[in-house]
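Repro:
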Amino acid sequence: MKSPHVPTGPRAGDTAPSRARGNTLRSVLTALALVLGALFAPGIGAGEAQAATKISHATAASMFRGSGITWSSSGGCSDRNNPTCTSFEQLNLATAKGAQTLKSASGCSLNITGGTETGHAGGTYSHWNGYKLDFSKYTCVGNYIKNTFTYIGVRGDGAPQWKSGAGNIYADEGSHWDVTFYNCGGC
């Protein structure tokens, strides 16, 4: 008598629901491996440049509006290619979240006067590249920065600077605060 053929191998006895669970688990494990690989990759550390998530002007404006952050421009516009405008086009998501963190942690009014528009100094961690925002100088936010963060000396252009525990840099440029957000500031 011939015995019936019994399938063997990795899919033997699989049912559609068990295959779906297996595929889901494999997807989750793959995603986890990618995240852990990025976190522990050689040469990647705190404060080093990593790919930033860029957002649109509309997305940033919605985030700021929802947090009670205002913005203004001397030209009353948001064109990224016009230096008299205040644009958030191509702003880093971490920068927008950093502004929200500053607002919530300080409890102060925040008004953004400079974003990603042309006309600012260049460089890797520049306005154009989405790392910086300029804020109006209000007593409340100035006191918060000076009393909460660490004074680290003057920048090459003479602007006094303070560094947050998260590593973001707050420079007093006289007429406004120039803030470099390397991250979201503990969001």
